[in-house]
Amino acid sequence: MGLDRMTFEDRPDPGAPGAGEIRVAVHGSSLNFHDLGVATGRMPTADGRIPLADGAGTVEAVGDGVTEFAAGDSVVSCFFPDWQDGTATIGDFSRTPGDGIDGFARDYVVLPATAFTHAPKGYDAVEAATITTAGLTAWRALVVDGKLKAGDTVLLLGTGGVSIWALQIAKAMGATVAITSSSDEKLERAKRLGADFTINYREQQAWGRAVVDWTQGRGVDHVVEVGGPGTLAQSIEAVQVGGHISLIGVLTGASGEVPTAALMAKQARLQGLIVGSRREQQEFVRALDATGIRPVVDRRFPLEALADAFRYEMGAGHFGKIGIEW
Amino acid sequence: MGLDRMTFEDRPDPGAPGAGEIRVAVHGSSLNFHDLGVATGRMPTADGRIPLADGAGTVEAVGDGVTEFAAGDSVVSCFFPDWQDGTATIGDFSRTPGDGIDGFARDYVVLPATAFTHAPKGYDAVEAATITTAGLTAWRALVVDGKLKAGDTVLLLGTGGVSIWALQIAKAMGATVAITSSSDEKLERAKRLGADFTINYREQQAWGRAVVDWTQGRGVDHVVEVGGPGTLAQSIEAVQVGGHISLIGVLTGASGEVPTAALMAKQARLQGLIVGSRREQQEFVRALDATGIRPVVDRRFPLEALADAFRYEMGAGHFGKIGIEW
Amino acid sequence: MGLDRMTFEDRPDPGAPGAGEIRVAVHGSSLNFHDLGVATGRMPTADGRIPLADGAGTVEAVGDGVTEFAAGDSVVSCFFPDWQDGTATIGDFSRTPGDGIDGFARDYVVLPATAFTHAPKGYDAVEAATITTAGLTAWRALVVDGKLKAGDTVLLLGTGGVSIWALQIAKAMGATVAITSSSDEKLERAKRLGADFTINYREQQAWGRAVVDWTQGRGVDHVVEVGGPGTLAQSIEAVQVGGHISLIGVLTGASGEVPTAALMAKQARLQGLIVGSRREQQEFVRALDATGIRPVVDRRFPLEALADAFRYEMGAGHFGKIGIEW
Amino acid sequence: MGLDRMTFEDRPDPGAPGAGEIRVAVHGSSLNFHDLGVATGRMPTADGRIPLADGAGTVEAVGDGVTEFAAGDSVVSCFFPDWQDGTATIGDFSRTPGDGIDGFARDYVVLPATAFTHAPKGYDAVEAATITTAGLTAWRALVVDGKLKAGDTVLLLGTGGVSIWALQIAKAMGATVAITSSSDEKLERAKRLGADFTINYREQQAWGRAVVDWTQGRGVDHVVEVGGPGTLAQSIEAVQVGGHISLIGVLTGASGEVPTAALMAKQARLQGLIVGSRREQQEFVRALDATGIRPVVDRRFPLEALADAFRYEMGAGHFGKIGIEW
Fold this sequence. Notes:
4 copies of one chain form a homotetramer.
Chain A: E1 21-30, H1 33-40, E2 56-62, E3 74-77, E4 108-112, E5 116-118, H2 125-129, H3 131-145, E6 153-157, H4 161-172, E7 176-181, H5 184-192, E8 197-200, H6 207-214, E9 220-225, H7 229-238, E10 239-247, E11 256-258, H8 260-265, E12 269-272, H9 278-291, E13 297-302, H10 306-314, E14 321-325
Parallel strand pairs in A: 6-7, 6-9, 7-8, 9-10, 10-12, 13-14
Antiparallel strand pairs in A: 1-2, 1-4, 1-14, 2-3, 3-5
Helix pairs in contact in A: 3-4, 3-9, 6-7
């Protein structure tokens, strides 16, 4: 799928919802590295696949038996519409919107009610859409898997969507946060969001060591590893004995040299994860309602300019999320 | 031990610290229901036992091999000086200061370094002393046992030391809090500390039901049960299916009628606990340093007026902690 | 519902399965205290409710989209057909077969495929039916909630269906088991199943103390509490500091005096539970396949003699499960 | 330290135990890859370091305040004598016998009582010594970290000490086990110990795929990864979505190519670990007492022939543990 060949015309109207389904007027989405992979063909999908995993909008009608939602409700989609609760059981994208099934780059969808949750209170559609992938990934890494508590220390790599969501969640729960970037200006923005320690990794290439020093030699409790093999060695250096590294990212490649003996000596946990369950998203929404966190949307593009939005994403100049609205 | 017979003269100076020990000039303590039990003789101890489980002050000297502390450090005592880490293994007060061993109502102590942690930054001795029993109990109930996360709902009973500590911890981690009292004025104070829902249980005797309604029928995630059998039935009513009740209190008695079938039907967990380990206290101190929470000290008494302080505690007119300083 | 008024005639054939459903020829069930409550009217249900929560049989046909089962498969029902995985979310019997919905005392059912799991290999229908309620309750108490490991000590009360299942599970995982009964003959049978320590509670009324002595003063790791308030005080005495009591039973009443201060001092956990999720049942079936455990079926009755079977259950003379087959 | 330069003469007698210490007549040890690293100088230690991390023998005398042991007791050493309980806090060998401090290749030691646990009942000194490193590593991987339950599937790599201990533990708890080796004869021995599925990885180089097929496509719950980077890719392939890989080994190197994206997609956990705490060893001993497992000692060497024993270990022809006795 070439970026310039993505069109959004002539989508047939999906009609009325059947039993257990809801009809949603979609008004917003946001971009993720995964969407970019689909859009550029790096992650192959069926021909004509409608892109975009994130989707938020307004319920227009509900089918028989749907009690959780009513017409007029603001809703946001689930990355794994079949993963309702419990242990991770899905290891591929065969049922993820915008990949294995059609995504949200369209005006209307009819899907099972269980493929959505309520949107956080007061969020517009773009803001809501940022929780489907990036927000829930950060929540799961720190809170579900990491059992984050006040006073914990967290290391975040870069200022993309997952990292900035993780920064906001960590600060709302009383944690202390270090964050890296190649841009002093982005590090300043991170500070204004509460970051306690910032590292320009171009200037301080031994950032793993710098983080250890910042913790007086103890190492951090959690690392949200969005980089992959290119950053993992320093993340292992930065984590404390018995600590927790959430392995999310493939930004630096899908495979590479890893100092496994160092991970072993640290008695650290490297937890692979992809987003989370619908129940986790419901709990995340409750957390957002309670704390009043609002996501950082760097810039918004109309749906028609989706190719431009992806080009902007590739430029790596953004901070937080890139929104698509219509 | 009669309240008026507690004297604080003629304590021999404990001298210099031996290997692994520290000498601490004690300057503050705070009162707990447990101390009151010892002071009134409800909980029998050895004759002449020096009271007070909580103690905070300044390190005057450290013995051989002590690297964690240095002279001049502010420190606070541990409720279970032998419970360093890991699973609960202590079910009595045989080694608790002010009960099985001498407490902190004196000018100087020499004890193993492992019987203390650093005090939270910026705390005076009375403030620091409040974490030994009440603070760590609240932290363990919500954070260690309860795995509290942002968006969780918490029910607190009354406005004593544990409940107000729990209120502050819960709010600092993004939770939503309901709290009960018989005093509208205390409920107002709780609101100013962040309480989201307040219930005057004299006016609203079915407070368990009121809490369920407040959560739109869902029930709360956590109850910090300081009452005991007299309140447990409504606490079980208030908790959600699969929820968590921390059983801390004996304010309404040591034994009583409990609707066990209701607990079973709720699939809820009733977790007995007494304070926590030294490692948990270290993590709690880190949380206090990170969040800047300061404890609520209702009133301070000089050590000489300890009997008056206990009488004030018995009056139940206080809010938060009662401090003792010298 | 009077025991003698239960008839099993004229049930209409449920026809062919719809999408996502399976048609099952039911051939076996087993009795639980819960079924007895329904049958005797102690637990009120709708008029004409078909009894029996446990059901096992053979798949006759599968509806569209069903891939997990095929005609000819042996299957067993789930106590909570809607609870698929994850955290407990159900606190009533409104959707439990034989209570809120029709049960298995009939020849054919058509139900969602997700209301069943595969039966353990080599089990007949009565044996398979014993896992729905009693077996899964024991598995959840010890393994899911209790994280049972080899070397743990377990206390079981009586020799009913849950306790005998718990005995077999505990022994298959390397635990050490104490069990009580009023019958020396039943205790002998328990020994033959691997029980390590047996107590006739008529002779040794201080059985809680006896269990503590048996563990050299340490107390047991787990108690499977099927008694309720009448036995809970001694169960609390028997459990170790930091131990785990599964609260399952209401045999001695739905409410009663509980020494809450003792539970607190033990820092023990009292975990209410009702059976478990479908995923837990799938894992339990896998455990049964791996270990080759076969349930203890005390006696089998034909479906027509269901009233007699319930009378036999009330007599409390049985050991393990009472089967119903047709 | 050259293998032939290890001598065991002229060790001064350590004398009587001080307060909190015990004097132990050491009679057995066993070899680990870690000891080999120390002996060959691959892991540098202080000059004249007495080797061997594992040690078992008989208590000859106890110092003041020691109540856990008495003269005549059989005891076994702890790999981390300072790690008593709780979260992993040690990430190096600075306090491990035979590395950072003197080990057990001598007739008598005087050490804190907390550096030992009771030996399993009926074990001789060599058998007991095998639990210090290899046994506790396997126990922690599967039971402490892995929460192993009956019916779980386990993949073991090779037939060294950790893997064979893991095989015995897994079978005693009702799990199902696959194991690899390059020797059909060793695979036969593993089968006799209960292995359910054996793979000769010379013949079946795609052993990861073979394990997935053996589980009908599901993947295993646990992998005990003793290989390191050379085997990790296939271990990731073999594990199920949401599964657990214990990262123990460096047999194939300390660093290497790892398919991190595959680990992420599997949502699997890679848990680094080094042995465990003293409390975990106590629980492991209780499990051995309850289950009657006896370790597999491939061959025994006298202490004087320690160099020969290490050469035998390097030959990789052994199965289970190599014992040293004196």
